[in-house]
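step: validate -> pass
step: tokenize input -> pass
step: predict -> running
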Amino acid sequence: MTFAGAHTALVTPFRNDQFDTHAFRQLIEEQIAGGISGIIPVGTTGESPTLDHEEHLEVIRVAIETANKRCLVIAGTGSNSTAEAISLTQAAEKAGADAALLVAPYYNKPSQEGLYRHFKAIATAVKIPLVLYSIPGRCGIEIGVETTARLAKEFQNIVAIKEAGGSVERVNQLRQALPASFQILSGDDSLTLPFLSVGAVGVISVAANIIPAEVSRMVRHHLDGESAKALEIHQHYYSLFKDLFIEPNPVPVKFALARLGKMSSEVRLPLCEMTPASVQRLSETLDSFGL
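step: predict -> pass
step: emit ->
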């Protein structure tokens, strides 16, 4: 399975603290119309920590049903509990997900050996392709290069990593340590093009929630050898890529989606609305792009 291309880390829309399935389905339709290669329900952007188990699975089921094989569905099923991650991943596999995204266990900060055993347990419990997700800024640990290489060597269904550590050097290190078939995806919109230039094959994007066609074109241009066209899109949208992270994700992107009339900006505690200063700054940025 190839993950080359642009994939959207979907928000989970809420209305009166309930999952807004209508807004979610409409968002997915817009992603597919924009040429997105895949969607990721219930990742970081989907507020997975504040969804209960049944809500989590319902979001995945709705995503699979709505996509209807028109794009990949990479279900976010990671947890800091290995047993829970196995349960969610098995349920996603049964529901028909094409792959699963597995974040590094957060808060409990396992050793690299603990990380290896965690992902080994999941990999041996399912058959679908698995994408590791290293985001040390949120988890407090990274999935080490050697650990990633060990997992890639020993488990055929561990096939990719979403790299959100903010370092081009680490992408270089991963590319050197991993087989050519193992795929690297950017986890930061503003670093997608630099990551692609040193061996990544795509992005799991937050910005694609609001500009799916543009993010998709940027990645496709690069993969097609049209680096100047890709760079033009990157430079044009760079300020948007950055300002969608002026406060914790997904608060800014939900504000943008609400401003576009796509859904409520509602997030669940402990997340909350942006400060007035952030609202002004992001509004000015969105205005500059006609959003």
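step: describe -> The radius of gyration is 18 Å.
step: cleanup -> pass
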